[in-house]
Amino acid sequence: MRDLVLGGKRISDEAVKSSWTVAVGASPTGTHDCVKAWYTDFRKDLAKITVPTLVLHGDQDRIVPIAISGALTQAAIRGSKYVPVKDAPHGLLVTHADPVNAELLSFLK
Fold it and tell me: How far apart are CA 22 and CA 91, in angstroms?
């Protein structure tokens, strides 16, 4: 059985298979070339955001750790709201849909 962060009871095997299907159907060239963007520093662009912004970040994200992204992103976007999502991994939209949707609805009010 997959561990809680990578699977467990919060994500179905069907959701994992769906993500895999999207990944294997992606353009090989695009997939290869997108790696270059990972090294691009977009932090200066955050200061240009002028619309209401909600920053959600899983506190168990192993891909983009919260310590180097979550609160720093919120600080760079004037007037944004920051919500760390407890026990959520990188794929929090799938694994933590209920708290994410609750925060989205609250923010949109």
Answer: 14
The full DSSP string for 14-52 is: HHHHHHHHHHHTS-HHHHHHHGGGGG---HHHHTT--S-
| pTM score | 0.77
Separation of alpha carbons 36 and 23, rounded Å:
18
pLDDT in the model for residue 52: 97
- How many CB atoms within 10 Å of residue 74? 20
Mapped onto helix, strand or coil, the DSSP state of residue 59 is coil
- Alpha carbons 93 and 88: distance in angstroms, whole number: 9
Pairwise CA distance, residues 75 & 26, whole Å: 34
Residues 6 or more apart whose CB falls under 8 angstroms from that of 1 comprise 7, 8
Chain centre distance of CA 99 = 14
